[in-house]
Specification:
The protein contains 2 helices and 15 strands. It is mainly beta and 220 residues long.
């Protein structure tokens, strides 16, 4: 019942704030592998859509694998910005990172013929936005024998965006003013969590300390 209520509130929030999505997660790294304490953190992520029409040219990449020839034609749209804040609850130390978010879609042909016309992309299509970022270097003393502690974060994991692409002058256009809607929510509701991978690093060596998804909740 609590889970149903949570998603009801989430859907209402997405509807009320169509352009932006802000979420929080508690990242408890106080008891990781071997009892190592990397700290307790509040992670805040804010996605802001461009709220405008963005364009993309077709990019082509030919590959040759095991005697097979492929051509991948892709589009990349800058659809918004993600600001991530990682705050140590005990010390108050805060790290902030801003990254552009890019929506990608592609067509692969199992030969050397590349898709060259924009009309092949001008349709309703699913596009993917990767939010993975890292590594973050945490300001904590590492385990003995290691140089530093790093954490890789992936808020929302990979978002799926349903886009109606239109063609104009050989370029493809994507209107980001309605980026969050019911269809987007229905596709991504089970991804509203924060993935983390915590490691200790020394040179080229790594020690895995913690890896998990933690739940996120909306604050807007």
């Amino acid at each position: 019942m609590k889970k149903i209520a949570f998603f009801a509130v989430l859907f209402a929030s997405l509807t009320a704030f169509a352009a932006d999505l802000t979420g929080k997660a508690t990242l408890d790294l106080t008891n990781t592998y071997g009892g190592f304490n990397a700290g307790l953190y509040e992670v805040t992520v804010q996605f802001t859509a461009n709220n405008q029409v963005v364009t993309s040219e077709i990019k082509r990449s030919q590959r040759h694998d095991d005697g097979e020839n492929f051509c991948v034609s892709s589009l990349n749209f800058k659809v918004g910005t993600l600001v991530t804040t990682v705050k140590n609850v005990i010390t108050g130390n805060t790290l902030v990172r801003t990254m552009d978010l890019t929506a990608t879609t592609s067509i692969q042909n199992d030969n050397e013929e590349c898709v060259t016309t924009a009309s092949d992309f001008a349709k309703e299509t699913a596009m993917y936005v990767t939010t993975s970022q890292g590594p973050w270097v945490l300001p904590v003393a590492p385990p003995k024998g290691w140089d530093q502690v790093q954490v890789w974060l992936n808020p929302f994991n990979t978002l799926t965006v349903f886009a109606s692409l239109t063609e104009e002058g050989g370029a493809l256009k994507f209107d980001t003013t309605n980026l969050f809607n019911a269809s987007l929510f229905n596709t991504n509701h089970n991804r509203l969590e924060l993935f983390h991978y915590l490691t200790a690093v020394e040179g080229s060596g790594t020690l895995s300390l913690s890896v998990a998804n933690v739940p996120m909740y909306l604050v807007k």
